[in-house]
Amino acid sequence: xxxxxxxxxxxxxxxxxxxxxxxxxxxxxxxxxxxxxxxxxxxxxxxxxxxxxxxxxxxxxxxxxxxxxxxxxxxxxxxxxxxxxxxxxxxxxxxxxxxxxxxxxxxxxxxxxxxxxxxxxxxxxxxxxxxxxxxxxxxxx
Length: 141
What we know:
By secondary structure, this protein is mainly beta. It has one helix spanning about 5-10; strands at about 20-25, 30, 35, 40, 45, 50, 55, 60-65, 65-70, 70-75, 75-80, 80-90, 95, 100-105, 110-115, 115-120, 125, 135. The strands form three sheets. Strands 1, 3, 4, 6, 7, 9, 10, 12, 14 and 16 form a ten-stranded parallel sheet that branches. It has a six-stranded parallel sheet with strand order 2-5-8-11-13-15, with no helix packed on it. It has a two-stranded antiparallel sheet with strand order 17-18.
């Protein structure tokens, strides 16, 4: 009666369809994170992260380590290699120090990227677990 369906599905991120594991501001984690679901980082991760879904790094989020994911939207800082199978979106507050491997890249004005970038629409991750950390080129059929 008091809550409409629209109110029940509203999230803090402003995206009604995005639900993720969250590392909040003020939280610091050391080690490797592996997930099949989406992850949002607003805290600090000293280590690598692998997800078969979307990774969101908020303005206060910092990752010092390698990143492997399907899609990524970054507002915070990454110190390490980024391997994004599909779309990497660097927002205006993003700071990247490391190499990027992705199929698609969006860089908003103000984003800072220091490193090399390899883009190929046929790039597929050889191993999302982070063990190899390399991409293989799939031949178009």
